[in-house]
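Hi everyone, sorry if this is the wrong subforum. Our group has a chain we'd like a structural model of before ordering constructs, and none of us has done structure prediction before. Sequence below.
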Amino acid sequence: MTARVDNHALGRSGRRKACDLCFTKKIKCDMLQPTCSNCILYKAECTTGKGRRKPNPPARVRAAAAIQHHQQPQYTTANTDKTEDRLARIEKQLEQLIALQSSRPPHTTGSWSSSQCEQGGDSAMTLSNADFDVAFPSRDPVVFDSASTKFPVAMDLAPRDELPLPPQADIMPIVDHYFDTYAYIMPLFDQKSFMAMLYQWYTDPSTRNKASWAAIQVVLAIALRTPIPELLNGCGGSDRHHRANFFLKNAQSVVSDLVTRDKDLLGLQVLLGIVMLFQNSSDTSPASVIIGTAIRLAHRMRLHSRDHAELFSPDENLQRQRLFWIAYVLDKDISLRIQVPSVQLDSDIDIDVPPAKPADDVGVLWTRDRQTCFNHHRSMIHLAQIQGRVYDWLHSNSSAKMSRQSRQQRVQQLDRMITHWYSTIPAAFNLENLDASIGECALIHMAKMYHVYLLILVMTYGIYNQDSNWVQAIRSGDRNAIRNLVLGTERYDSGAASQKQVRLLPGSWHKVVQVSRGCLRLFDMCIPTECLIWQCSCPHFSGMMVLLANLLIEPTHADAVSDEILSARAIQLFDKVLELIPDPEHYTDIRVIIEELYNRAVLVINEAKSQGGDDQVDVLEANLLSYETLDGDPWSWAAALPGRTDFSAGTRDGDGDSLGVLPLCR
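Answer:
Right subforum, don't worry. Here is the predicted structure as tokens:
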């Protein structure tokens, strides 16, 4: 038998055209079966089972292989040395870790103290007391220390929990404060479902996830920034600010995992909570970006439509509805403040506003005697609708091409809408009637709402704009020019700035003066917390200039004395805010205008007093009262801002985060 292999069993590249003998002797084979002619001649077995000889590689390939073979022992040795060095460093770190852990008392339950806060609120903490190979990026959550009395502390070498939280007993007072003072006005989280999630977090670790962890962080951060900080025992001053930043940064570290979470409401709730925190801080630019993401997520969940209402229970539909309107209010407010288009179109909304009298009283404010109520949440939605129209009709790119006559007509329509909105507010909650009878927390919420109202008036009439005619008249010192402006009898020039200027409607100046006076008085009654300062500062300072301008043209009116005091305190507040922001030089022009207006108001008032026979007393200067004379130093939170004036000795720390800077009206 022959050992010949069939040709079809060989690959195309290995197909043989000669038997083994002929291939070896390099002679032509006739491939006869079963034995070729040459094999018969040489009396040899005719087979074709041997493989093709491997071709000789090119010379340069052989040279490269020789070099690699020559260097291989050296490379292996170097790599081995590097590995051994790294293992030695790791062993050293493990020994340090064991020594550190053994020096601590046994772990029972984690705790943190609010009495000290020296590490700041930045979650991008580094370990400077050892040489570690592992780097912790800034997006990693900060880990709680179970033994130290300082909060927060440097990150543990080996975190015991990927999603750390303080002990339940420590955070419950803060969570209760959130639902007692904030959640019933701004229904971001439902208390029943949130408390169930919080309880499950601590009792069943297997159910933990980033969304619920971030939701808890947001609630803690908002609670530490809500009104009446003295209710948080041991959590006042700069410590609150540091800890609020700490929780906010933890929530931000998982935002990328939440922007597409549409299976439940947690992702949207966390995004909206972060927007609220930045909106009530000195920098709204992150809020303007995140609110766009939140609105798009709400669209994906069809919160703006009735389409999927039948898929949810009535309680779930109510919560979905409230969340959408919260996003809507934030979107319109941010749009008008920073002069950018809003994301949500009014024409694309297919759901109703919340009921005027909800069964659970969420969003409703009551007087202390429980005789009168006011649906704050519903009113803010209607106010946000007006904010959207103010931007679309007067400040958008398309509105810039309108004629002055068309612009004037739109101002008249907006004026009617604003008047109607104010007429729906119960008398007990009117601006001129508000006092402590509604409760301190409710008073702060109303102060923020009425400052939005003042912002709408200012933006509607273009009263405070550096390019407007009336600011130019103020800087000129011409009282007649100012009087003509407020009476609507001024003559317009042909400039581009004048093209956007509108005549004040009859009674409009009086309305703006009344609202400015009411807002400054209301602000003066509230605790100047950081959220109140940053959210109200722009319309507040515009109202101050309105009062000073009104003193110029009518220095002896009935409220002149109170306006002097309110304006003086607003000037002091303005100077204090300039000390807190990182770029005060950007507001030099505004400060110059305020100083010019202040000096002219003092001069006019003194002249009026002289003509009336009164003593020439600088009333404004005498009423520059100090906020720091208040009990408890409500400005202690400012000590946590980095690179600012030290308002509270012994509490400053440079590691905090200011959450950025709300531009004043420019």
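For your construct planning: Residues 1-13, 104-160, 615-666 have pLDDT under 50 and may be disordered. The two ends are 104 Å apart (CA to CA).
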